[in-house]
Design goal:
Layout lengths: L1 H58 L17 E8 L1 E9 L2 E2 L1 E8 L14 E2 L3 E2 L1
Antiparallel strand pairs: 1-2, 2-4, 3-6, 4-5
């Protein structure tokens, strides 16, 4: 009788374990998407810094025109550039996540509270949409 009871308990335990495993797999996949989106936004902002430096070397000015900068963000990333009196800032967003990353160079208003060091892309809390 005890072995019959243990067989009846084993099946629901296996089902619960399988559901828990699926849940954890889905959560880790979502976490990877968050990290990938943040990595893409930060990388694009670093590439924008380089593009602005090249543009500034030849024109002695900065540009908000991505075509003039010969700059294209990654697929899924949108970058908005704002010019200031003696610098620029940019905010990147990704279609898969809520939250943005930003960078600034020169004397301009900080685009996000998290962006505190010139030339260092920083992000808000980023979560999947």
């Amino acid at each position: 009788m005890a072995s019959n009871l243990s067989h009846k308990l084993a099946i629901p335990l296996v089902i619960v374990a399988a559901i828990a495993g699926l849940y954890l797999t889905m959560r880790s996949g979502a976490h990877r998407k968050d990290k990938n989106a943040v990595a893409a936004m930060k990388s694009d902002l670093r590439n924008l810094i380089t593009a602005q430096e090249y543009y500034h070397d030849s024109t002695r000015s900065f540009s908000a025109d991505q075509g003039a900068l010969n700059y294209t963000p990654s697929t899924g990333v949108t970058v908005e550039i704002t010019l200031g009196d003696s610098g620029w800032s940019a905010i990147a967003s990704h279609f898969q996540v809520n939250g943005r990353c930003a960078v600034f160079v020169g004397t301009v208003a900080r685009p996000l509270e998290q962006a505190v060091t010139e030339g260092e892309p920083r992000c808000e809390r980023v979560e999947l949409k």
